[in-house]
Amino acid sequence: MLAKIYIPLAFISQAFAFSLLLAVVLLPFLLLPLPFVISLYAILAGTTWLLLAVDAWVFSVYRFHINAFFIKMLFVDRAGMGVGNGILLVGFVAWFAFMGFTYWLATKALVILSRLRTGLIFSFLAVLLVIGQGIHAWGYAHNMGAIVSLTHTVPWYTPLTATTKLKQLGWFNEALVEDNLVLKEGKVSGFNYPAEPIQCVAENTPNIVIVSVESLRFDRYTPEIMPNITEIGRESLYFSNHLSTGTVTDRGVFGLIYSLSPVFFNSAMGAGKQPALIESTQQLGYQHWVLANQDIEVNKLDTLLFNGIEPLQSQGKGAVYEGDANLIKQFKKQLEANPEGQPFFSFLLFNGSHFPYWTPPNYPSPFLPAEQLRISKVKDDTEPKPYLNQYSNSIHYLDTLVGELKATLQANNQWENTIVVITGDHGEEFKDQNEPYWGHGSNFTQYQTQVPLVIHWPGKQQEVNYRTSHEDIAATLVTEALSCDVAFESISTGESLFSDAQRVNIVASYVNQAIIVDDSVNELLPGFVKSYSLKSVDDKVETPVSAIKGVQKIYQYFR
Asked: Which of 14, 190, 395, 504 suits 557 as a labelling partner, its CA being 20 to 30 A distant?
């Protein structure tokens, strides 16, 4: 019921927001002659109508709304996008038609509005806007897929989320959340995932452990900082040119477990489905141990990635370094109690390497001087070395926990029957480009997007230097480690980890996205594309023509 109300309200409130914006733009011109104001309104409103009509067509074809990258590529490779001269001519005719219609409408509106109580209409539309946003906040908090999955259909819409506030106010209904965890397939449209059924037969059932280290950037992969993980890498698989799917945790971990581009994040959020990796391990009768030392409930990662599986730990426990150590304790407890021959899947999310970067008291920190980082206190001239050292110390500590994980598997005779994936959710920056970038989520250079990838895969040993991505990992495990009968492209937007095919990757933050091809980054900012090198935001590059074809391919999946 709420979903049927929500979408009309979202479109009405978005139109109301556009109208307010248009009114603000016209405000300085109200002192000019009325015919001029009406003509200006006709141009602006007609252009807006045209953009909405074109956006509807773009969304129907590509499943994304008009953005700066689309506009840029329209000039770079218009023919490749299928936009010929005929379509341009139709667009110009439609533009003049829309302007003529809005001019006529404006002249009539002056008469109509003079007879109406405009203040009452304004208040009514404002109330509709609040109700629509409130419905989304309620639906998001309670995993209502029928609501959340439709948001992306509204052009340039920014919905409200308020899960924590609803809990504080006592308006959160836990029972309602449980109801929505069992959404029936077909209830939500627009996300046909997986594209074909997955069939798994219990022939190959290695244990699978995925370790995600918070903010683990690529150049921390050294024997001095990560002695245990680099030792595993030397003996197994190490991917030196690996990108996360996000510069923030939820987008990065989404790609890691779902094997999908983050453009499907919102669609998956409302679909109530299982990632192919989880569905496959459930078919094969695996035990599932989800252990996270950060709150994966507030950002919905628990239900998005592990729908129907109760996490053993889904929030921090005690001090951050204590919570990380507790993950290993719980893993050891589960492993020792696991019946012999029972395969298991485990996901461990460490958090100590998130700023301010945590180590236990009296930990023998190898990198000095070291100081915890308070993001709010850094300045343009802040010296990064002590904070970078403490970041390295926190990773060094987490590396010891990974060493304990390996020792636990070996002590229980499971190391040679277990695939262990070790990577980061995203990178971390410390003013590396002589620009005041700190932490993550602020740009898409290698410092925030590139992470190490080490996989202990019994029987495999190789250093891989071509580009790989989080989109590649889970689907490779499903098709090659578990030997499930499903086409790779039916469960992933990536490539096999063992394929050197060129990748076109979309990486996301909370706000922006970037298209990365080879070493070019094309960051989609409001109204324009900022193109720069993967190594530095100051190194300008050209957008490869192949980028648009890669993006088109990504958006064609799972329609």
From this structure: 14
DSSP string of 407-440? HHHHHTT-GGGEEEEEEESS--EESTTSS--EES
Token output for 159: 């919905």
CA 140, CA 303: separation in Å to the nearest integer?
12
The SS3 of residue 286 is coil
Measure the CA angle with vertex 550, ends 545 and 210; round to 5°: 135
Phi-psi region of 324 (alpha: psi -120 to 50; beta: other; left: phi over 0): alpha
- List the beta bridge partners of residue 291: 313, 348
What span, in angstroms and rounded, lies between the C-alpha atoms of 357 and 377?
Answer: 15
Helix/strand/coil for 367: coil
One-letter amino acid at 217 equals R
- Tally the residues of the chain: 559
Give the per-residue pLDDT at 189. Answer: 46
| Angle subtended by helix axes 34-62 and 85-114, to nearest 10 | 130
Please name the helix (run of DSSP H) or strand (run of DSSP E) that holds residue 165, with its range, or none: helix 163-169
Is the pTM above the cut of 0.85? no
For residue 157, pLDDT over 80 is answered with no
CA distances, 209 to each of 417, 477, 508 (Å) = 11, 11, 25
CA distance 242 to 218: 8
Could you give the CA distance from residue 102 to residue 47 in angstroms, rounded to a whole number? 10
Coil, strand or helix at 278: helix
**Are 287 and 302 within 8 A, CB to CB?**
no
78 or 216: which carries more pLDDT confidence?
216
Please give the distance of CA 23 from its chain centroid, rounded to a whole number: 34
Spatial separation of the C-alpha atoms in residues 478 and 473, rounded to whole Å: 9
CA 357, distance to chain mean position in Å, is 23
